[in-house]
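Feature request disguised as a bug: please show the residue count (72) next to Methyltransferase domain-containing protein in the output. Example input:
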Amino acid sequence: MLHFNDQVEYWDEVAATKKFTHPVNFSWLDGLLDSQSRILDYGCGYGRVMNLLHENGYLNVEGVDFSTQLIH
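Example output, currently without the count:
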């Protein structure tokens, strides 16, 4: 596994070019979480999954990422 600093450097370098398009299936959350559940997306990147969660009715979504270039 790469060292943490190597990961930061890599993601800061490729942030502007990365787009993730794999489908996200939220049906596995049905019955587990309600719209008021607090959700932390650790390693959120540019926030794609957080946005999808919010669009699907989850109201308390926060994200954290170590790459400052991804979260700009």
